[in-house]
Amino acid sequence: MFNFKIIAECKTTRARAGILQTAHGEVETPIFMPVGTLGTVKSLSPEELITCGAQIILGNTYHLYLRPGCDVIRRFNGLHGFMHWDGPILTDSGGFQVFSLAKLRKVTIEGALFQSHIDGSQHMLTPEKSVEIQLCLGSDIVMCLDECIKYPAEKKDTQNALELTTQWAKRCKDAFKNEKNALFGIVQGGMFKDLREMSAHDLLNIDFDGYAVGGLSVGEPKDLMLEMADFTLPLLPDTKPKYIMGVGTPEDIVSLVALGADMFDCVLPTRNARNGQMFTNTGTINISNARFKNDIDPIESECTCYTCRNYSRAYLRHLYLSKELLAYRLNTIHNVHFYMNLVRQLRTAICNGEFEEFKKEFFKNSLQPQL
Amino acid sequence: MFNFKIIAECKTTRARAGILQTAHGEVETPIFMPVGTLGTVKSLSPEELITCGAQIILGNTYHLYLRPGCDVIRRFNGLHGFMHWDGPILTDSGGFQVFSLAKLRKVTIEGALFQSHIDGSQHMLTPEKSVEIQLCLGSDIVMCLDECIKYPAEKKDTQNALELTTQWAKRCKDAFKNEKNALFGIVQGGMFKDLREMSAHDLLNIDFDGYAVGGLSVGEPKDLMLEMADFTLPLLPDTKPKYIMGVGTPEDIVSLVALGADMFDCVLPTRNARNGQMFTNTGTINISNARFKNDIDPIESECTCYTCRNYSRAYLRHLYLSKELLAYRLNTIHNVHFYMNLVRQLRTAICNGEFEEFKKEFFKNSLQPQL
Hints:
2 copies of one chain form a homodimer. The first copy, chain A, is an alpha/beta fold. Chain A has 2 domains: 3-266, TIM Barrel, CATH 3.20.20.105; 277-371, no CATH class. Chain A is built from 15 helices and 16 strands. The first copy, chain A, has helices spanning 46-51, 61-66, 70-74, 79-83, 95-100, 127-136, 155-175, 193-206, 222-232, 250-258, 268-274, 306-310, 313-321, 325-351, 355-365; strands spanning 3-9, 16-22, 25-29, 31-33, 57-59, 89-91, 103-107, 112-115, 122-125, 141-143, 182-187, 210-213, 242-244, 263-265, 277-280, 283-286. In chain A, α7 runs parallel beside α8 and α14 (325-351) packs antiparallel against α15 (355-365). The termini of chain A are far apart. The model of chain A has no long low-confidence stretch (mean pLDDT 96). Chains A and B meet through α13 and α14 of A and α13 and α14 of B.
């Protein structure tokens, strides 16, 4: 069922455009996946997501496992039915949240013992358990359980995390008896090229439907992030989709597409919208700024999103300052639309053989955040 | 421009169906007006309001005057353009909030001196100022500034408030030089029938486009509220629209329509939605209830609202317990749809000569709130 086809490649960079075929429909790459942590992309309806151009969304295994729990979601034959989203869903393994959000009790080869951040209840997340939960969620793309190491980290610790990740990946593959959905491996290895190489090599031996680069955007300088992505992406087979996890700004996405990445997810467009920070083609603006008090123009004149077609900066500022619920939604619509429009433009440019020009133009217009 | 036409009357009760013509289109009565305090019916888009059956909404003069202020709204030629709502808008006078929400400094014949609940700034609300603000908002139905007295109240205090209300009503009428929009007077007089009679008599002498009954649902027992409405509504001319302010439950609305009321507003459907309390034909349910944990059915099976067509009680419970923004919106859609559907059914029943049967059936099915 799962399939990946490249339909166009840039001649001068590693950028490519493709089609991911999943059990819930096709996804055009490069693609950005809005984050729907708890079975909802915060404040948006599924219909709005589609209007914004979303094709695939991300669900968080850790959160959904704790709340509402697999027993509830099983009644709906998975997350799609539960949340009224018929398109493809990728789920993370839960590992990242166990290591960052939960109270971690103990990590062994067996798995990670943790306490829920909600009620303190104790749970064990093993590779097998992670796959089981993700299959219960009906995920179209299942991610292997990994240990994502923070930056900076010692080489020894990084290598230990990577070796655990490889062992867990093997067990995920064994546990994953499913022909409908896809299983992706995650390359770790921190900021050490030889470890990244080792990780990629070991994962390729196990053989996955796609590969993610994990452990980026964990606190390292931007240059180093791009350097590691530049080094790691070519280690992965070009016939398979390549996914950079948890990244990033619009600038990051353009740069990483040039390096050969196909898939992205990040909370930036949604979280920043709820903080009043809006993305535009000439940088970010904060909608609470006093200069928008009487501004009858939309966030961005040429933007075709629902928010920009119908509402002014003055109204959005008023809603935001008044903490009105509609504020978060209208802001989120704009930011998600902005991200989806960006990857659509990248794809079109690649298909038309104009990617380099697009990239050049993009970085000329894009300014640093104006907060 | 403003006009009211009765198209059907119940033979055995005072219920009637009519058409209000306003500068922003027609409204079919009996009608319920969702409350859009700050230029937004909390969590809903204007398109969703229309889909829910809303025909006219209410804006709060006190809130909009303080935030964003008339200088901003004037740039949009009024509230319609500012908030992207093209239908009719009724605005209150601001009086109720000045007396209930602001820090009241002094009430004289001239007006009410108050401090903003937001920043403590001092403002004077006079009848002329209230009309001026409402016309700046572009309100289709402007309400006279009144003094609404709490329950219980002494007769002397009630009479003083009523006399002030009458004087202010006269000044509102003088200040209201406008042929496009309508001006409504508000009958006060608390729970004293002779005072209600005096108030109605004096207002009729001034002559308004429509009449509201204020000072109900301010703490008095339900029976007394209905008794006062029953007494007051026939004092008002049948050729004019009659509006019961700030009321009420679905049961109240059915009872009051039988007594001859045409218009209603209340925060119940919207506020209760945000507290998880959902209206159904057999009483209210609280969506956070544990019995809905695995419930794959919608809030109400026969309901045709967006929420009931697409989401289960289990999902709504999950969103609500997770404090997800989508929860408030999906709940509000259902409750507003429920209220709009109720008044539509009342209207249809009146037009078909079946109002009494409908009312009987309604009270047979309607249970007390099950919290």
